[in-house]
Write a structure and sequence with these properties.
The protein has 496 residues and is an all-alpha fold. It has 19 helices and three strands.
């Protein structure tokens, strides 16, 4: 009898006739996801369905929230179909599917200006200032000394009636007689050194008159680069990379809104890969640069201290300090920027009610919830550090990042970009409920949406617990193994 050498597939889809059909379904789902993205990044494109709908409409937030959740549902169905389709293809063809899908979705994302955040306006201004040889920490955006540098797509004079809401598609701020697209124009920049270098390099490639598209295209290129790295890690399971490349979190927050958190996530992933290959120096440099991109990647350190930890720490801190050195020489203590004020404004100082630590504050007074939450996170971090498996440190990293986001509950879904690569590495896909919950927190608007935010965070926590129980009870786990694909990483000595 002739042996069957076809790839192992689910019996329901194992016939040769069903594979093209599944491929057609996958293409249709990707096109549907791209169409939804195209509509959501510019709500006026939906005015034929909802008359008068635009970014400034009272119903804009609820439409964006519902539309984003719909995108997550379509995305989940697409990657589940992709598991069967892509694993039946040769690695190069499967990788092409993932990269073309990312390009298709990214193209829809850059078809309009940022839909729900104007952070990249500050990125652009900091980059323009640096192009002219000025430290971004030295002056406020409204400082008259920089008036000659102001492009019309970021600054306009106020009219007699104030600032028009349609002056800037990403939102408008007013300071005196100036209307700006930049948020918090009367405070210094908050962004660390790696981020500022990134802002400078991106704006260096574009004239000052070019708007948001510069950072959006940079986000698309970063997304494709990280997708390519994940494809190298999973050559026989390209669908794992699709969880990153086609994710609504990446498409909306990493590409359309062009958040610099994407750079921090990519550098952190690089640090993990390099350390697994025994390259402590390269890993520490990458991690130090990641922390100097947005500070949040510091959470991932728990899974990076299993190989020469003190050397790793010293090299990471040295890289962080070295990146700051030019700015420190130019601006001195001003390099702290708005960070202290930001922590106070965001409600992390426990002096006034805020949506931070929303689950804990459901049961505890606000002034107790924040210190107890911080202590809880420290205890979890220490426990995970001691119990990190050096052969798969990303499991501990994913768990700590997800728990940190759940407990601290920042109202910014793009913070979840740091979580996404570790979800892909470890296959803990239930953790993606966390950035979905943060999307609810973001669009629900505190304080009116506090209850819905708490419910969303609680459901995300339940999803994580359910995934943990299901994994423990699965036959593969009970047999002492796992059916999950593992990253293709060369690892040598894994002694602490």
């Amino acid at each position: 009898m002739r042996e069957d050498h076809r790839p192992h597939l689910n019996p329901r889809w194992s016939s040769s006739a069903s594979r093209p059909a599944l491929g057609a379904w996958l293409l249709a789902l990707l096109c549907l996801l791209a169409a939804l993205t195209w509509f959501l990044v510019d709500l006026s494109r939906l005015s034929w369905l909802i008359p008068g709908l635009s970014r400034t409409s009272p119903s804009a937030s609820i439409v964006l929230l519902c539309g984003t959740i719909l995108c997550w549902l379509v995305f989940t169905l697409a990657v589940l179909v992709a598991r069967t389709v892509l694993r039946s293809l040769k690695p190069r063809k499967a990788a092409a599917w993932v990269l073309i899908g990312c390009t298709l979705l990214g193209s829809a994302a850059v078809s309009a200006t940022p839909a729900s955040s104007n952070d990249s306006a500050r990125y652009a201004w900091d980059g323009i200032v640096q192009k002219n040889g000025i430290s971004p920490y030295q002056y406020l955006p409204v400082d008259p000394a920089l008036e000659r540098l102001r492009p019309s797509w970021l600054f306009r004079p106020a009219e007699a009636g104030g600032c028009r809401t349609d002056d800037f598609p990403t939102g408008v701020e007013r300071s005196g007689d100036i209307c700006l697209a930049i948020n918090r124009p009367q405070v210094p920049t908050i962004y660390p050194a790696t981020a500022e270098i990134y802002f400078f390099l991106v704006r260096l490639a574009w004239p000052d008159s070019v708007g948001f598209i510069g950072f959006q295209l940079a986000g698309l290129l970063l997304s494709l680069g990280i997708s390519a790295l994940l494809l190298r890690l999973f050559p026989a399971a390209a669908d794992r990379a699709a969880w990153w490349a086609w994710s609504p979190l990446l498409i909306f927050e990493g590409i359309n809104n062009a958040h610099v958190d994407l750079l921090g996530a990519g550098l952190t992933l690089l640090a993990v890969v390099l350390l697994a290959k025994g390259k402590v120096l390269g890993s520490a440099v990458a991690f130090g640069a990641a922390v100097a991109a947005k500070l949040i990647p510091a959470i991932a350190a728990v899974g990076l201290l299993y190989r020469r930890p003190w050397r790793f720490i010293l090299l990471s801190v040295g890289t962080f300090a070295l990146l700051y050195l030019p700015y420190l020489l130019l601006s001195g203590p001003a390099v702290l920027g708005f960070l202290p004020g930001y922590l106070n404004e965001e409600g992390y100082d426990a002096t006034h009610p805020s949506p931070r630590f929303a689950l804990l504050s459901w049961a505890l007074p606000t002034n107790w919830a924040i210190p107890i939450g911080a202590l809880l996170l420290i205890m979890i971090a220490l426990l995970l550090w001691r119990r990190t498996d050096p052969t798969k440190p990303w499991d501990a990293q994913a768990l700590l990042i997800a728990l940190a986001l759940l407990i601290a509950s920042p109202s910014y879904p793009w913070y979840g970009l740091l979580l996404l690569p570790f979800v892909v590495l470890g296959g803990r896909f239930e953790y993606l409920a966390v950035p979905v919950a943060l999307t609810v927190v973001y669009f629900a608007r505190w304080p009116d949406g506090l209850l819905s935010s708490r419910i969303a965070l609680l459901l995300a926590a339940l999803a994580m617990v359910t995934g943990w129980f299901w994994r423990r009870r699965s036959p593969a786990t009970q047999a002492g193994g796992s059916s999950r694909p593992v990253p293709n990483l060369a690892s040598s000595n894994t002694t602490r």
